[in-house]
Amino acid sequence: MMKAIGFTQHLPITDGHSLEDIELPKPAPTGHDLLVNVQAVSVNPVDTGTRGAGHRQLAQPKVLGWDAVGTVDAVGDQVTLFQPGDRVFYAGSYKRSGSDAEYQLVDERIVGHAPQKLTDAQAAAVPLTSLTAWEALFEKLHIPLDDRQTNQRHTILIINGAGGVGSMATQLADWAGIHVIATASQPESIEWVKNHHAEIVLNHRQPLPAQLHAAGYKNVDYILNLSHLDEHWAEIAEMIRPDGWVAAITENRRGIDLQKLTRKRATFAWEWMFSKSWYGYDLASQGAILNRIAGLLDAGTLQDTLTKTLSPLNAANLRQAHALVESGHMIGKVVVAGPWA
Ligand SMILES: NC(=O)c1ccc[n+]([C@@H]2O[C@H](COP(=O)([O-])OP(=O)(O)OC[C@H]3O[C@@H](n4cnc5c(N)ncnc54)[C@H](OP(=O)(O)O)[C@@H]3O)[C@@H](O)[C@H]2O)c1
């Protein structure tokens, strides 16, 4: 048996039963799966959203968690990329049981070697947000990775620069050579965004186009929306340049009017970090991205984004981490680190 944290009822995080300490059978790896002994996990809005959405009583406990660092304990018979003892980090698949467990199965192809110079807590903060930011910038906005000369002529606006994804996206866009404008609304988040390579910071609680114009920009080449797409859509359409590119990672509650982009011939794309593992294609690209991110962190090119660590790994601390993410005002990332208690 192994320790885990899960729930059987969708309850508010203030309820002690919203996440509970449980015991589950320890799984065994087959095929391309690694069995990972999880040492630290991070919490993302996908955790709080999945926990909070739904009314039914579950027959089996649901284990959340899509950000982990740990050590490979055993491998399936088709595994070629890792061996027992390797320190790994990954986000995992939305279809499978999550990382809030002492042991977790994960497909080796969506796993990276953990950054050597980062602590477990620092490394656990990285996978989901860096995969999302990387795929959005380089796969969906099609920013050319190895063409700094072109990128230096371009500007990106990142809406929500201080959250988990924004903290990585600002750094990665700057690394690619693009001028970065990001949004934040509080003194601490404004400071954080500047420290993560935004040249200009706009306040997303005030109209954005007027602030963009006041900063000397008529429009921008790229917009990456990381919060409240409905709320920002009209402004996005106004601020993007003709033939520009827009990507979003947040679902919209109301319909968005794509016609607002028609005259500008601007391109709109969704990013969903789980698409590849959900539909089972291009899996190895996520392992490759994580290995590249680990190299950039170890080289000091990227800074880790950890701002809060809770320990030990138990339901009480995970509930605290969920409450912080649910506040909607996170700066960087919160992690719950082992030992398991
Ligand atoms: N599609 C995907 O693959 C994917 C992956 C990861 C996340 N997501 C989604 O992307 C969103 C961001 O994720 P995250 O982990 O970065 O979230 P997060 O860390 O919880 O974001 C917190 C930040 O959001 C900012 N914010 C709050 N209201 C805002 C608004 N109206 N406009 C702009 N910014 C606002 C806050 O800034 P202030 O406090 O300064 O206002 C805060 O710093 C979430 O909705 C999440 O579900 C999607």
Automatic annotation (TrEMBL):
InterPro entries: ADH-like_N, ADH_Zn_typ-1, ER, GroES-like_sf, NAD(P)-bd_dom_sf, Zinc-ADH_QOR/CCCR. Pfam families: ADH_N, ADH_zinc_N_2. Residues 17-336 form the Enoyl reductase (ER) domain. GO terms for molecular function: oxidoreductase activity; zinc ion binding. The keyword Metal-binding applies. Transmembrane segments: none annotated. It comes from the Bacteria. Keywords: Metal-binding, NADP, Oxidoreductase, Zinc. SUPFAM superfamilies: GroES-like, NAD(P)-binding Rossmann-fold domains. NCBIfam families: adh_fam_1 (TIGR02817). Belongs to the zinc-containing alcohol dehydrogenase family. Quinone oxidoreductase subfamily. This is Zinc-type alcohol dehydrogenase-like protein. It comes from Schleiferilactobacillus perolens DSM 12744.
